[in-house]
Amino acid sequence: MSVAINIENVIKRFGKDTIIDGLSLNIKEGEFFTLLGPSGCGKTTLLRMIIGFNSIEGGEIKLDEKLINHIPTNKRNMGMVFQNYAIFPHMSVKDNVAFGLKRKKMSKQEIDEKVDEILKIVKIDHLRDRMPAKLSGGQQQRVALARAIVIHPEVLLMDEPLSNLDAKLRVEMRNAIKRIQQQIGITTVYVTHDQEEALAVSDRIAVMNGGVIQQIDTPKRIYQRPANTFVATFIGQSNILDGSIVKTQAGSGIKIFDAFFAMENLSENCAYMQKVSVSIRPEEFILSRDNKEGIKGIIKSSVFLGINTNYFIELENGKEVEVIQASDSLEAIPDGSTVYLNLQTDKINVFTDDGTKNLIRWV
Ligand SMILES: Nc1ncnc2c1ncn2[C@@H]1O[C@H](COP(=O)(O)OP(=O)(O)OP(=O)(O)O)[C@@H](O)[C@H]1O
Ligand SMILES: [Mg+2]
Protein backbone atom coordinates (compact mmCIF):
# COMPACT_ATOMS: atom_id res chain seq x y z
CA MET A 1 0.00 0.00 0.00
CA SER A 2 2.70 2.47 0.98
CA VAL A 3 4.72 4.33 -1.58
CA ALA A 4 7.97 6.26 -1.81
CA ILE A 5 7.76 9.99 -2.56
CA ASN A 6 10.44 11.23 -4.90
CA ILE A 7 10.79 14.98 -5.17
CA GLU A 8 13.20 16.14 -7.83
CA ASN A 9 14.31 19.72 -8.21
CA VAL A 10 10.89 21.28 -7.53
CA ILE A 11 10.27 24.98 -7.87
CA LYS A 12 7.44 26.99 -6.26
CA ARG A 13 6.68 30.55 -7.22
CA PHE A 14 3.98 32.86 -5.91
CA GLY A 15 3.87 35.68 -8.48
CA LYS A 16 7.40 37.04 -8.75
CA ASP A 17 8.54 35.42 -5.49
CA THR A 18 10.39 32.13 -5.72
CA ILE A 19 9.76 30.37 -2.41
CA ILE A 20 11.36 27.03 -3.27
CA ASP A 21 14.06 27.00 -5.90
CA GLY A 22 15.04 23.48 -6.87
CA LEU A 23 14.46 21.23 -3.87
CA SER A 24 15.03 17.47 -3.98
CA LEU A 25 14.30 14.76 -1.47
CA ASN A 26 13.39 11.11 -1.41
CA ILE A 27 11.00 9.80 1.21
CA LYS A 28 11.04 6.06 1.65
CA GLU A 29 8.05 3.75 1.64
CA GLY A 30 6.50 3.56 5.13
CA GLU A 31 8.81 6.22 6.48
CA PHE A 32 7.86 8.85 9.08
CA PHE A 33 9.52 11.86 7.49
CA THR A 34 9.47 15.32 9.07
CA LEU A 35 9.96 18.76 7.55
CA LEU A 36 11.39 20.96 10.29
CA GLY A 37 12.34 24.61 10.10
CA PRO A 38 11.55 28.14 11.26
CA SER A 39 8.33 29.94 10.41
CA GLY A 40 8.14 30.92 6.75
CA CYS A 41 10.81 28.48 5.52
CA GLY A 42 8.39 26.76 3.13
CA LYS A 43 7.22 23.64 5.02
CA THR A 44 3.50 24.09 4.36
CA THR A 45 4.21 25.20 0.79
CA LEU A 46 6.06 21.94 0.08
CA LEU A 47 3.36 19.83 1.76
CA ARG A 48 0.69 21.55 -0.33
CA MET A 49 2.70 20.77 -3.47
CA ILE A 50 2.77 17.09 -2.50
CA ILE A 51 -1.00 16.89 -1.99
CA GLY A 52 -1.81 19.09 -4.98
CA PHE A 53 -3.22 22.25 -3.34
CA ASN A 54 -0.26 24.19 -4.79
CA SER A 55 0.82 24.19 -8.42
CA ILE A 56 4.38 23.16 -9.20
CA GLU A 57 6.40 25.57 -11.32
CA GLY A 58 9.28 23.23 -12.07
CA GLY A 59 10.70 19.78 -11.30
CA GLU A 60 8.87 16.56 -10.57
CA ILE A 61 7.01 14.86 -7.75
CA LYS A 62 6.62 11.10 -8.13
CA LEU A 63 4.89 8.43 -6.06
CA ASP A 64 7.20 5.50 -6.67
CA GLU A 65 7.75 5.95 -10.41
CA LYS A 66 4.44 7.69 -11.15
CA LEU A 67 4.62 11.40 -11.96
CA ILE A 68 1.84 13.24 -10.10
CA ASN A 69 2.54 16.91 -10.92
CA HIS A 70 -0.72 17.34 -12.81
CA ILE A 71 -2.94 14.83 -11.01
CA PRO A 72 -5.71 16.63 -9.08
CA THR A 73 -5.79 16.35 -5.28
CA ASN A 74 -8.86 14.11 -5.15
CA LYS A 75 -7.14 11.56 -7.41
CA ARG A 76 -3.88 11.46 -5.42
CA ASN A 77 -5.11 9.11 -2.66
CA MET A 78 -3.54 11.09 0.17
CA GLY A 79 -4.89 11.92 3.63
CA MET A 80 -4.15 15.20 5.34
CA VAL A 81 -4.44 16.41 8.93
CA PHE A 82 -4.38 20.15 9.54
CA GLN A 83 -3.43 22.27 12.51
CA ASN A 84 -7.04 23.37 13.13
CA TYR A 85 -8.40 19.78 12.73
CA ALA A 86 -10.98 20.91 10.12
CA ILE A 87 -13.61 18.45 11.34
CA PHE A 88 -17.29 19.16 10.65
CA PRO A 89 -18.95 20.63 13.79
CA HIS A 90 -22.46 19.51 12.82
CA MET A 91 -21.53 15.85 12.37
CA SER A 92 -20.91 13.20 15.03
CA VAL A 93 -17.50 11.56 15.38
CA LYS A 94 -18.71 8.58 13.38
CA ASP A 95 -20.13 10.72 10.56
CA ASN A 96 -16.98 12.82 10.40
CA VAL A 97 -14.86 9.70 9.97
CA ALA A 98 -17.32 8.14 7.51
CA PHE A 99 -17.39 11.26 5.33
CA GLY A 100 -14.55 10.25 2.97
CA LEU A 101 -15.92 6.72 2.66
CA LYS A 102 -19.39 7.87 1.63
CA ARG A 103 -17.86 9.51 -1.40
CA LYS A 104 -16.41 6.12 -2.28
CA LYS A 105 -19.91 4.64 -2.56
CA MET A 106 -19.50 1.75 -0.11
CA SER A 107 -22.36 -0.13 1.53
CA LYS A 108 -23.53 1.16 4.92
CA GLN A 109 -22.32 -2.00 6.64
CA GLU A 110 -18.89 -1.76 5.06
CA ILE A 111 -18.62 1.89 6.12
CA ASP A 112 -19.64 1.06 9.70
CA GLU A 113 -17.03 -1.67 9.92
CA LYS A 114 -14.25 0.53 8.60
CA VAL A 115 -15.20 3.44 10.88
CA ASP A 116 -15.28 1.17 13.93
CA GLU A 117 -11.91 -0.33 13.06
CA ILE A 118 -10.25 3.09 12.71
CA LEU A 119 -11.93 4.51 15.85
CA LYS A 120 -10.41 1.60 17.77
CA ILE A 121 -6.97 2.27 16.31
CA VAL A 122 -7.08 5.93 17.38
CA LYS A 123 -8.73 4.91 20.68
CA ILE A 124 -11.95 6.94 20.51
CA ASP A 125 -14.40 4.13 19.74
CA HIS A 126 -16.28 4.99 22.95
CA LEU A 127 -16.94 8.47 21.52
CA ARG A 128 -18.40 7.45 18.17
CA ASP A 129 -21.76 9.22 18.67
CA ARG A 130 -20.41 12.40 20.32
CA MET A 131 -20.57 15.80 18.61
CA PRO A 132 -17.20 17.61 18.14
CA ALA A 133 -18.14 20.47 20.49
CA LYS A 134 -18.16 17.95 23.32
CA LEU A 135 -14.67 16.62 22.62
CA SER A 136 -11.34 17.74 24.05
CA GLY A 137 -8.66 19.11 21.70
CA GLY A 138 -6.78 15.82 21.73
CA GLN A 139 -9.95 13.87 20.97
CA GLN A 140 -10.79 16.21 18.08
CA GLN A 141 -7.31 15.68 16.71
CA ARG A 142 -7.85 11.90 16.90
CA VAL A 143 -11.08 12.34 14.87
CA ALA A 144 -9.13 14.32 12.25
CA LEU A 145 -6.47 11.60 12.15
CA ALA A 146 -9.10 8.84 11.89
CA ARG A 147 -10.79 10.68 9.03
CA ALA A 148 -7.50 11.01 7.16
CA ILE A 149 -6.48 7.36 7.49
CA VAL A 150 -9.88 5.62 7.13
CA ILE A 151 -9.68 5.96 3.35
CA HIS A 152 -6.42 3.96 3.40
CA PRO A 153 -4.40 6.64 1.66
CA GLU A 154 -1.00 5.85 0.21
CA VAL A 155 0.45 8.92 1.91
CA LEU A 156 -0.45 10.71 5.15
CA LEU A 157 0.39 14.42 5.39
CA MET A 158 0.25 16.32 8.67
CA ASP A 159 0.78 20.05 9.03
CA GLU A 160 1.54 21.02 12.65
CA PRO A 161 -1.27 18.74 13.87
CA LEU A 162 -0.48 19.28 17.55
CA SER A 163 0.15 22.99 17.77
CA ASN A 164 -3.29 23.79 19.24
CA LEU A 165 -2.82 21.40 22.15
CA ASP A 166 -1.25 22.12 25.54
CA ALA A 167 2.23 20.82 26.28
CA LYS A 168 1.25 17.62 28.11
CA LEU A 169 -1.34 16.60 25.51
CA ARG A 170 1.12 17.29 22.70
CA VAL A 171 3.52 14.72 24.11
CA GLU A 172 0.71 12.21 24.59
CA MET A 173 -0.65 12.75 21.07
CA ARG A 174 2.73 12.67 19.37
CA ASN A 175 3.36 9.26 20.93
CA ALA A 176 -0.09 8.15 19.77
CA ILE A 177 0.55 9.39 16.22
CA LYS A 178 3.89 7.62 16.07
CA ARG A 179 2.38 4.37 17.30
CA ILE A 180 -0.55 4.52 14.87
CA GLN A 181 1.77 5.35 11.98
CA GLN A 182 3.91 2.30 12.77
CA GLN A 183 0.83 0.14 13.15
CA ILE A 184 -0.57 1.01 9.72
CA GLY A 185 2.85 1.45 8.08
CA ILE A 186 1.88 4.44 5.97
CA THR A 187 4.37 6.81 4.34
CA THR A 188 4.00 9.99 6.39
CA VAL A 189 5.19 13.54 5.87
CA TYR A 190 4.91 15.55 9.06
CA VAL A 191 5.46 19.28 9.41
CA THR A 192 6.47 20.96 12.63
CA HIS A 193 8.60 23.80 13.87
CA ASP A 194 8.97 22.07 17.25
CA GLN A 195 12.37 20.40 17.21
CA GLU A 196 11.73 18.14 20.19
CA GLU A 197 8.56 16.84 18.54
CA ALA A 198 10.53 16.17 15.34
CA LEU A 199 13.25 14.28 17.21
CA ALA A 200 10.63 12.21 19.05
CA VAL A 201 8.50 10.99 16.14
CA SER A 202 10.63 10.90 12.99
CA ASP A 203 12.53 8.21 11.18
CA ARG A 204 14.29 11.01 9.31
CA ILE A 205 14.13 14.78 9.39
CA ALA A 206 14.76 17.38 6.69
CA VAL A 207 15.84 20.64 8.30
CA MET A 208 14.83 23.57 6.07
CA ASN A 209 15.73 27.23 6.07
CA GLY A 210 14.68 29.81 3.48
CA GLY A 211 13.22 27.16 1.15
CA VAL A 212 16.51 25.23 1.15
CA ILE A 213 17.18 21.86 2.78
CA GLN A 214 20.07 22.14 5.19
CA GLN A 215 20.34 18.47 6.18
CA ILE A 216 18.41 15.22 5.83
CA ASP A 217 19.21 12.59 8.41
CA THR A 218 18.04 10.55 11.39
CA PRO A 219 17.14 12.52 14.55
CA LYS A 220 20.24 11.26 16.33
CA ARG A 221 22.65 12.17 13.55
CA ILE A 222 21.05 15.59 13.09
CA TYR A 223 21.51 16.26 16.80
CA GLN A 224 24.99 14.80 17.13
CA ARG A 225 26.51 15.76 13.77
CA PRO A 226 24.69 18.82 12.40
CA ALA A 227 25.73 19.73 8.85
CA ASN A 228 26.23 23.44 9.60
CA THR A 229 25.86 26.00 12.37
CA PHE A 230 22.23 26.73 11.39
CA VAL A 231 21.26 23.13 12.16
CA ALA A 232 23.51 23.05 15.26
CA THR A 233 21.72 26.03 16.76
CA PHE A 234 18.20 25.30 15.47
CA ILE A 235 18.11 21.72 16.80
CA GLY A 236 18.81 21.78 20.50
CA GLN A 237 21.13 24.38 21.94
CA SER A 238 24.71 25.01 20.92
CA ASN A 239 27.32 27.48 22.08
CA ILE A 240 29.38 28.67 19.12
CA LEU A 241 32.96 29.73 19.96
CA ASP A 242 35.75 30.98 17.67
CA GLY A 243 38.77 28.72 17.48
CA SER A 244 41.59 27.66 15.23
CA ILE A 245 43.10 24.41 14.01
CA VAL A 246 46.41 23.40 15.56
CA LYS A 247 48.60 20.68 14.12
CA THR A 248 51.60 19.28 15.95
CA GLN A 249 53.70 16.17 15.54
CA ALA A 250 51.70 14.63 18.35
CA GLY A 251 48.44 15.13 16.43
CA SER A 252 45.89 17.79 15.63
CA GLY A 253 43.35 19.67 17.65
CA ILE A 254 41.70 23.01 18.21
CA LYS A 255 42.64 26.06 20.18
CA ILE A 256 39.98 28.20 21.89
CA PHE A 257 41.43 31.28 23.66
CA ASP A 258 44.66 29.79 25.08
CA ALA A 259 43.31 26.33 25.68
CA PHE A 260 44.31 23.44 23.39
CA PHE A 261 42.07 20.41 22.88
CA ALA A 262 43.41 17.36 21.09
CA MET A 263 40.91 15.98 18.58
CA GLU A 264 40.99 12.56 16.97
CA ASN A 265 38.24 13.07 14.42
CA LEU A 266 39.13 16.22 12.48
CA SER A 267 38.76 15.93 8.73
CA GLU A 268 41.85 15.72 6.55
CA ASN A 269 40.81 18.99 4.94
CA CYS A 270 41.62 21.09 8.01
CA ALA A 271 44.54 23.44 7.48
CA TYR A 272 46.98 24.55 10.17
CA MET A 273 45.82 27.83 11.76
CA GLN A 274 42.49 27.65 9.89
CA LYS A 275 39.85 29.68 11.70
CA VAL A 276 36.88 27.58 12.81
CA SER A 277 33.53 27.89 14.58
CA VAL A 278 33.35 25.36 17.38
CA SER A 279 29.87 24.20 18.37
CA ILE A 280 29.53 22.90 21.91
CA ARG A 281 26.25 21.74 23.42
CA PRO A 282 25.71 22.70 27.08
CA GLU A 283 26.12 19.07 28.14
CA GLU A 284 29.41 18.69 26.24
CA PHE A 285 31.37 20.91 28.64
CA ILE A 286 33.23 19.50 31.62
CA LEU A 287 33.24 22.09 34.36
CA SER A 288 35.94 22.24 36.98
CA ARG A 289 37.05 24.62 39.77
CA ASP A 290 40.28 22.87 40.66
CA ASN A 291 41.78 21.72 37.37
CA LYS A 292 43.16 25.01 36.10
CA GLU A 293 43.34 23.89 32.48
CA GLY A 294 40.75 24.68 29.87
CA ILE A 295 38.75 27.76 28.96
CA LYS A 296 38.60 30.17 31.87
CA GLY A 297 35.27 31.72 32.86
CA ILE A 298 33.28 33.24 35.68
CA ILE A 299 29.87 31.97 36.77
CA LYS A 300 27.27 34.68 36.27
CA SER A 301 24.23 32.73 37.39
CA SER A 302 22.87 29.22 37.74
CA VAL A 303 19.49 27.51 37.60
CA PHE A 304 18.73 24.30 39.47
CA LEU A 305 16.57 21.99 37.32
CA GLY A 306 16.46 18.82 39.38
CA ILE A 307 18.74 16.28 37.72
CA ASN A 308 20.83 19.03 36.16
CA THR A 309 22.02 22.51 36.99
CA ASN A 310 22.48 25.09 34.22
CA TYR A 311 25.34 27.54 34.59
CA PHE A 312 25.70 30.77 32.62
CA ILE A 313 29.39 31.45 32.36
CA GLU A 314 31.15 34.53 31.04
CA LEU A 315 34.36 33.92 29.10
CA GLU A 316 37.38 36.22 28.79
CA ASN A 317 36.00 38.06 25.75
CA GLY A 318 32.69 38.76 27.49
CA LYS A 319 30.81 36.02 25.61
CA GLU A 320 28.40 34.00 27.72
CA VAL A 321 28.01 30.24 27.39
CA GLU A 322 25.45 27.88 28.84
CA VAL A 323 26.76 24.77 30.57
CA ILE A 324 24.71 21.86 31.93
CA GLN A 325 26.14 19.68 34.68
CA ALA A 326 24.60 16.92 36.75
CA SER A 327 23.44 18.35 40.09
CA ASP A 328 25.50 15.81 41.99
CA SER A 329 26.92 17.98 44.74
CA LEU A 330 24.59 19.42 47.32
CA GLU A 331 25.61 23.01 46.67
CA ALA A 332 25.68 24.69 43.27
CA ILE A 333 28.95 26.47 42.48
CA PRO A 334 28.39 30.06 43.70
CA ASP A 335 28.01 32.98 41.29
CA GLY A 336 31.26 34.86 40.79
CA SER A 337 33.41 31.69 41.03
CA THR A 338 36.21 31.24 38.53
CA VAL A 339 35.84 27.93 36.68
CA TYR A 340 37.59 26.08 33.86
CA LEU A 341 35.79 24.47 30.97
CA ASN A 342 37.02 21.36 29.23
CA LEU A 343 35.30 19.68 26.32
CA GLN A 344 34.06 16.23 25.41
CA THR A 345 36.11 16.35 22.23
CA ASP A 346 34.50 13.27 20.71
CA LYS A 347 31.07 14.96 20.87
CA ILE A 348 31.65 18.60 19.89
CA ASN A 349 31.41 19.81 16.29
CA VAL A 350 33.89 21.97 14.41
CA PHE A 351 32.74 24.04 11.43
CA THR A 352 34.45 26.27 8.90
CA ASP A 353 34.41 29.82 10.26
CA ASP A 354 31.49 30.75 7.97
CA GLY A 355 29.54 27.91 9.61
CA THR A 356 28.66 26.16 6.34
CA LYS A 357 30.67 22.95 6.57
CA ASN A 358 31.25 20.41 9.34
CA LEU A 359 34.96 19.53 9.66
CA ILE A 360 34.45 16.38 11.73
CA ARG A 361 35.30 13.09 10.06
CA TRP A 362 32.60 10.57 10.88
CA VAL A 363 30.90 7.54 9.52
N1 LIG B 1 -0.46 31.76 -1.31
C1 LIG B 1 0.68 32.44 -1.11
N2 LIG B 1 0.96 33.55 -1.81
C2 LIG B 1 2.12 34.23 -1.63
N3 LIG B 1 3.09 33.85 -0.78
C3 LIG B 1 2.88 32.75 -0.05
C4 LIG B 1 1.66 31.97 -0.17
N4 LIG B 1 1.75 30.92 0.68
C5 LIG B 1 2.94 31.04 1.30
N5 LIG B 1 3.63 32.12 0.87
C6 LIG B 1 4.98 32.52 1.30
O1 LIG B 1 5.84 31.41 1.19
C7 LIG B 1 6.77 31.38 2.27
C8 LIG B 1 6.70 30.05 2.94
O2 LIG B 1 5.44 29.92 3.58
P1 LIG B 1 4.98 28.59 4.31
O3 LIG B 1 3.57 28.77 4.71
O4 LIG B 1 5.31 27.44 3.45
O5 LIG B 1 5.92 28.60 5.60
P2 LIG B 1 6.00 27.55 6.80
O6 LIG B 1 7.38 27.01 6.81
O7 LIG B 1 4.88 26.58 6.70
O8 LIG B 1 5.84 28.49 8.08
P3 LIG B 1 5.00 28.31 9.45
O9 LIG B 1 5.90 27.49 10.36
O10 LIG B 1 4.83 29.69 9.95
O11 LIG B 1 3.72 27.62 9.13
C9 LIG B 1 6.43 32.55 3.17
O12 LIG B 1 7.31 33.61 2.89
C10 LIG B 1 5.01 32.89 2.78
O13 LIG B 1 4.75 34.25 2.96
MG1 LIG C 1 3.19 26.22 7.86
Helix and strand layout, with pairings?
Blueprint: E1 5-14, E2 17-27, E3 32-36, H1 43-51, E4 58-63, E5 66-67, E6 78-81, H2 93-102, H3 108-121, H4 137-149, E7 155-159, H5 167-184, E8 187-192, H6 195-201, E9 204-209, E10 212-217, H7 219-224, H8 229-234, E11 239-248, E12 251-256, E13 259-262, E14 275-280, E15 285-288, E16 295-304, E17 308-315, E18 320-326, E19 338-343, E20 349-352
Parallel strand pairs: 3-8, 3-9, 6-7, 7-8
Antiparallel strand pairs: 1-2, 1-4, 4-5, 9-10, 11-12, 11-14, 12-13, 14-20, 15-19, 16-17, 16-19, 17-18
Helix pairs in contact: 2-3, 2-4, 3-4, 4-5
Note down, in words, how this protein is organized.
There is one protein chain. Strand 7, helix 5 and strand 8 (187-192) form a beta-alpha-beta unit. It is built from eight helices and 20 strands. Helices cover 23% and strands 35% of the residues. The protein is of the alpha+beta class. Helix 2 (93-102) packs parallel to helix 4 (137-149) and helix 4 (137-149) packs parallel to helix 5. The radius of gyration is 25 Å and the shape is elongated. Adenosine-5'-triphosphate is lined by residues 14, 19, 37, 39-45, 193.
